[in-house]
Amino acid sequence: QVQLVESGGGLVQSGGSLRLSCAASGSIFSINHMGWHRQAPGKERELVASITRYGTTNYADSVKGRFTISRDNGKNTWYLQMNSLKPEDTAVYYCNAEVRATWYDGTKDYWGQGTQVTVSS
Q1: What is the number of other CB atoms lying within 10 angstroms of the CB of residue 18?
Q2: 59: which strand partners?
Q3: Buried b or exposed e, range 27-55, using 16+ CB within 10 angstroms
């Protein structure tokens, strides 16, 4: 009953910027934790950034100072602003969320479909 829809991927030159968005819809009481992961060919999926509904953020060392995660709790939407992009940032980016459907429910993880980010030299 919960779906995450991503947008904003594309092809950019090294040093350029992209902004990814993820919108959650369906049966949602609250979203406790939101994040972005990425997976490059031949690599394992890795955490890029995460944010709690209270605004606490966490970043991979490789993107600190370049990427910013933010969220709009009222819209159940979160974003990844990516600046100073490098070729090594090329990957499929997936948004995810820890969702509580009702006040009495536990939480469950959901994932977006992925969006390709390609950074050329």
Answers
A1: 21
A2: 49
A3: ebeebebbbbbbeeeeeeeeebbbbebee
Q: Give a three-class secondary structure readout of 46-97.
A: EEEEEEECCCCEEECCCCCCCEEEEEEHHHCEEEEEECCCCHHHCEEEEEEE
**Structure confidence by residue, pLDDT tens digits, 25-37:** 999 999 999 999 9
* Phi-psi sector, 84: left (phi>0), alpha (psi -120 to 50), beta: left
Rounded Cα gap, residues 82 and 3, in angstroms:
23
pLDDT digits (tens, 9 = 90+) for 43-69: 999 999 999 999 999 999 999 999 999
